[in-house]
Structure to design on (123 residues):
């Protein structure tokens, strides 16, 4: 999975529902035909004008047309942005916190923890 991240500041006084507006722009542009798998709009909880758009792409298709797709996506949201946008690309690696195979102290019951302490004291 390839990721295109665009950070921008929303124009002051913009009264649209930003996630809905960005979603509609993406749907109308039919980016799914270009390999777009999903997207996320992150609005800062500290400053509502600070926004990050994450778009998740089919890696093979994105890599073949990275510059074109980046430029296209920037143009889609340009009317919402106040000034320059910062754009980053990379590879996404999804992690499942529940599937970790590492055992931690917090995972142990009190009797198991006591057994470990006894074993370490025996050495």
């Amino acid at each position: 999975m390839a990721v295109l991240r665009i950070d921008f500041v929303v124009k002051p006084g913009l009264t649209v529902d930003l996630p809905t507006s960005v979603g509609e722009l993406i749907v109308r542009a039919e980016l799914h035909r270009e390999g777009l798998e999903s997207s996320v709009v992150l609005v800062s909880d500290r400053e509502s004008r600070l926004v990050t758009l994450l778009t998740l792409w089919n890696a093979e298709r994105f890599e073949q047309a990275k510059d074109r797709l980046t430029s296209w996506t920037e143009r889609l949201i340009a009317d919402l942005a106040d000034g320059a946008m910062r754009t980053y690309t990379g590879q996404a690696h999804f992690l499942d916190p529940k599937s970790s195979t590492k055992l931690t102290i917090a995972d142990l019951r009190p009797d198991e923890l006591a057994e470990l302490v006894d074993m370490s004291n025996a050495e």
